[in-house]
Structure prediction request, 861 residues.
Amino acid sequence: MLALALLVPAAASAHAYLVHTTPAASGVLDSAPRQVALTYDEAVEPRFAIVSVTDPSGTQRAIGGPHRSPANPDTLIVPVDAHLQEGWYLVYWRAISVDGHPVQGAFTFAVGPNPGPAPQFPVPHVSATAITAPLLIARWVLFVSVMSAIGLLALRLLIARTVIRRAPGATLRTLNRAWAISAVVGLIAIPVYLDIAIANDSLRSAFDLGALVPLYRVTAFGRGFLDLLLCFALFCLAGGVALWVDRPERERRSVAELAASTGALVAAIAVLVIPGAVGHAGQASPRGLSMLFDAVHLGAGAIWLGGLIGLLVLWLSLTEHKPVGAPSRVQVLRVVVPRFSNVALASVLLLLATGIGATVIHMPALNALWKTGYGVAILVKIGLLVAAVSLAAGNLLRTRPGLLAAREEPPRAESAAQLLRRLISGEAAVIGSAVFAAVLLSSLAPPPPSFALQNSALAKVGPGQVARTVQHGAYRLQVVVSPNKAAAPDSFALRITKGGQPVRGANVTLAFNHLEMQMPQQEYQLREVVPGTYSRSAPALVMVGKWGLSFQVAPPGSPPFTALIVDQANG
Amino acid sequence: MRRAAPAWALLAVGLCAIGLAACGGGGSSQGTVSVPKVAAARVFTLAGFQPAQSIVPGRPTPVSFTVQLPSGQPLTQYRTGGGPHTGVHLIIVRDDLAYIIHQHPPVGPDGVLRTTVRFPAPGPYRVLVDVYPNLPGGQPNFQLFRSVQVSGAYRPRPLPAFKSEQTIDGYRVAMQGHPSLHAIQASFVDVDVRDPQGRKVTLEPWFGALAHAIFFHQGSLDYFHTHVCGAGATNCASVLGAARVSGTSTTPGRLTLGVLLPVAGTWRLFLQMKLGGRVVTAPYTLQVAS
Prediction:
């Protein structure tokens, strides 16, 4: 299965990006266009997209919303006012990638032949985040309920089942009930989360179901969560049947129960794989390994979290003293806790191993751990897991021997049971928080591989106009970026001197990498405008954020070198 | 302790309620995707333009203005050096393209440009300021426009047909053949210039070029401008999109003129050169096919 998973091809890029525009960015047309066409690297959904075309006064000149080009499914077309006068126009666009993430950008074009000077357009910015509070809460409820349901079923069918035979008179009805509650919450939380997420991305109200429901299946993200809902429903069905037909008083399971349990297992595996497939794990490279880590990580977390909740439910449903015809709390716990402890230990080890593996895959550099929101969320999650592991160690070292010694020292067992309750409540709460950190983590985009570029930067500049002199070996480099605004044509200039003399006739290329989001690299050739000064105007800073500007310089007769500047561009 | 299960049920219902409540706050209030409001851009303007009121024909009229940057500051940094693409070209045409005035006012230290213009006849005029700023990364040049009215009765004149040979102030200007022109395609046109004695003239540089070819589109008054330079001249080419064009004159009396027009239609070419210490303008009507 591992080998099979590794064969899944890697996705090319995380987010949709603009490949081509008509009119061309910063271009001057000789006559007014009838439409603006934006071609992406994937088929973005027009019903989620915004394409605005405004003149310098801010008047909207696009007529109606964008639609898909009949000739090319990757192209969005928006018709514009037929009577655009000579002058400059701003195109602002926002689209939802097939992976569900919003992307946006802007460019200008002019209607000529004499458009006049390019104005300074203010570029709008629609919040492009997937981390609003309602979304995070809904996602957290979804993951906690789904994981608990899987873990509770595993605890009930595999670990706690023997209690019936080993502690006569015990009942597992409360575990069944807890499982049913988490299943129902999960079945509600998945569609609610999907609806909120789609509403957030398409800038609509979550209650606008007439508009939102048709959009559910439009993105890979939406399809993924519908699949998740279906698989989870199948899991609930199969799990329900397995519990229905289970006769725990018999040691051997019936064929019907085995069949239903297998069905529940298969559905649970599907449920565990889907979030990774539609999330960032499905876009990292190597993709198969990353998805495997994600699914195993989620599964181990589910066994741990669901098991703890199950133990807590059991603890609360039992009484200290033996009622007539029923076993005492200690009698039940001394059966379940040692068995669960072994499973929990294995889960924790898997959780740590897969978590570390995924971190290694997603982190382009070590300092991305504390320099990006994604990295900080990982650190918080690691901290919470370490706290949970120390509580688990307390269970393993103190309560387990105490419970096992119940027959010889009943008081010791009772105090161990009290300690157990406190420890597992704490553990469950800490794991619940770790799930929240994971929810936050999976809502953030991992830093792109170009993040590592930051560590070799000669200087960090911006926001605002840049004029910075740096030294690179014998060369003195003056970097000018003006006005250093995102989504507008900026001018980039590099003056190269060596020993006070301008370096002439060099071949200078400037490469742009966004350091916070995965995007294709852009490269421009700079032209020598004055001896030793190489310059170019380009709409290269397509988004707000940190950019790596790599000046690749090949001076005549000297070895080439690269000077990297990290530039913060604001809107 | 049997009450524990209802407690769990309550917690679960609470979580659902949080989810549903969150759902209410999730979206915006309107039902459709809203296009964000875009604020007005900051633009270049022709500020403090004088004369502000009606102009008397035939009288020297002081003209002054400032090119104002989007920041509100006056533009004081203009491109300098050799070649024609420097400073400011002030070009004024009457709307019927019967008259042209072409000057190069000096830039004052405060960015104010001042000159004196004599408007020859009544009617509406288009004032075109072709600016060559020295701004990092901006466009190499751009135009700002203004319309002015010269008082009196306006009698528009139809454009004369193409005439290859013309005599202006005694100089004979002859275009070789009837050029076949297409929009956005650069082409070259040879023009011979002889003095009143019939000798081939040697052109004197005027404002960085041996000759200036100024084109206006009839009706829309779209504008383009190319230059004729001597051998080895720099900063002479005019740029239109990806195309660059410049003219040359390497033998006395013969100009090779670069023509590059953005749109089809009827264009008026004003070919200007300095002959015998004076600027001579030879106008041509050209048809440009698409």
Remarks:
- Residues 1-13 of chain A have pLDDT under 50 and may be disordered.
- Residues 397 and 497 of chain A are 69 Å apart (CA to CA).
- The longest strand of chain A covers residues 87-96.
